[in-house]
Amino acid sequence: MPTFDGYSTSREVVDAFASQVQGRTIVITGAGQPSIGSSMATTLAHASPAHIIIASRTAAKVEPVLDQIRKINPVVKATFVQIDLGDHESVRSAANEILVATGSKIGLLINSAGNMAIKEYEVDKQGIETQFSANHVGHFLLTNLLMPALLVAAAEDQERGARIVNLTSLGYRISPVIFNDYNFSDGKTYDHWTAYGQAKTANILFAYGITARLKARGVAAFAAHPGSNIDTNLGSHLSMEDYGAIPAIAKRNTGTDFEFDEPRFKTFDQIGATPLAAALDPSFSSKGHSYVANSQVEEPDEIARDPRNVEKLWKLSEKLVGQEFSY
């Protein structure tokens, strides 16, 4: 079986695991152009999935990606579903639309939408801090609403099962989830990097929570750190000075030293490789951890894998979306 690293490309990963893609229904959030999601969506099209659904806020940003998918492989059905992850009514409506469009069977869900280090304190429609909302809480709700369709796919295709991939970041090391003050005292104690770290830690804890509950039923979840790329515009509002502040903030929040990983920057062709490996590599299910970096499973820091934090996050998330999910 091939192995990949921080320099592998998205296409190399998809070509190696094409049999994991063929004929499957795939849902990707975000994926407006240019983004990690759009890179993954167009690359996956080469391996002939049955259907790629992109759930995103703005149709105009997604239509060029859908057109590209159809151009790459006219056999692949490509669909847009409107969603605002910061509006739980919108998430519920989108989930219903996706379930109808997929015939309630989804082999792969990639939670790719998100934001990064928003400098001013903002809240979503429910009053939840916007980074925690867009990166984690909205995806927690969407994922669980789509779970019946993932379980159907896993039961019908036991060899491949079903997978969920959350996009996280090495930035999780900036902060744990602040369970007693996730909303930063309504903004009074807000720090944009701490909020980002909290959200990215939540992405990993959520993956552990899904796997603990559903691995025995064929659904595995991973949180993938794709690396950094300047083409996606995710951090276009940030300066090098902003990035330079991270180590001190991380030290203050966690007591540990923060170091950027290598390669420091990846090309647009490389940026989707790690989440695609998390989605497709069959060997990952037996590795015992839910964090993937540079296309390999790794053990994350304790703040992102402690079983007590996994369960605390699940309970907090249920409270924030107003619904319990037990399996």
From TrEMBL:
Q: Check the record and name the InterPro entries matching this protein.
A: NAD(P)-bd_dom_sf, SDR_fam
Gene3D superfamilies linked to this entry? NAD(P)-binding Rossmann-like Domain
What are the UniProt keywords, alphabetically? Oxidoreductase
UniProt GO MF annotations: oxidoreductase activity
Record-linked Pfam families: adh_short (PF00106)
Record's family? Belongs to the short-chain dehydrogenases/reductases (SDR) family.
Q: What is this protein called?
A: Short-chain dehydrogenase
Q: Which organism is it from?
A: Fusarium albosuccineum
